[in-house]
Amino acid sequence: MLKATALVKRYGPCVTAVDGVSLEIPQGQMVGVIGRSGAGKSTLLRLINRLIDPTEGQVHFDGVDVTRLKGRRLREWRAACAMIFQQFNLVGRLDVLTNVLVGRVGHRATVPTLVKQFSRSERALAAQALERLDLADQGLQRAETLSGGQQQRVAIARALVQQPRLILADEPIASLDPGNAKRVMDALRAINREDGLTVLCNLHHISTARDTCDRIIGMQDGRVVFDGPPETLTSPIIRDLFGTEARDGDGPAWNHPPASAVA
């Protein structure tokens, strides 16, 4: 169980990015977090992963107070709580396999990782992750030669070799075309279902959130203003979250049925 209690993040006296967020997310749930840019979605994920520290409140995972972790235990938490970013964060000049193996850094010393000294079992783990993401044939290619969708799937494979207990994905499809976006979301959904991993994913497109997530959380001005199953996310709620100017393609497709309904 992932639990956030009265979580607050302030930047100076005037900016409150996350404002009193309390959530409980059971193990194995796939959750979509939606809202306008600046709603606090990315800050919330970074607070959970402890990339940034809260101003107030706590994050607990299976009874452990994550906000109090330091040193080795904090590094272990960040390995257990894998992050996937919009920008992929790959090293373009390195081959795909090595980029995936970088995900093992939380489990080993940094120096051997920098000189690419990985064990046979670690290489097998990385190869298995690439196979699962349909990228086995690209293992020896430089990462910069891949398409955006392929690079994001490499980033997912890197997260998998961390052997995480949950995955946080921060706008993982924002820079992808619809076809690649679907492949990335299908991959995350498959991992969620097959491995029982909790997945918390920031999204802009309502149709994607409806199709792939068990639960949707809506944020506005740093607060949670909606929390429920996809079918309860009505057009009036979405208009309140995003405004009437939202359009399919660059924001929430609130005036269209989910793809699963018309397939």
UniProtKB/TrEMBL annotation:
Can you give the residue ranges of the ABC transporter domain? 2-246
Q: Please name the PROSITE patterns in this protein's record.
A: ABC_TRANSPORTER_1, ABC_TRANSPORTER_2
This one is known as Phosphonate transport system ATP-binding protein
Write down the Gene3D superfamilies for this protein, in alphabetical order: P-loop containing nucleotide triphosphate hydrolases
The keyword Membrane appears for this protein = yes
Q: Which GO terms describe its molecular function?
A: ABC-type phosphonate transporter activity; ATP binding; ATP hydrolysis activity
GO cellular component terms, alphabetically, are: membrane
Region Disordered: list its residue ranges.
244-263
Q: Which InterPro entries match?
A: AAA+_ATPase, ABC_transporter-like_ATP-bd, ABC_transporter-like_CS, ABC_transpr_PhnC, MetN_ABC_transporter-like, P-loop_NTPase
Keyword line: ATP-binding, Cell membrane, Membrane, Nucleotide-binding, Translocase, Transport
Indicate whether Transport appears among the record's keywords: yes
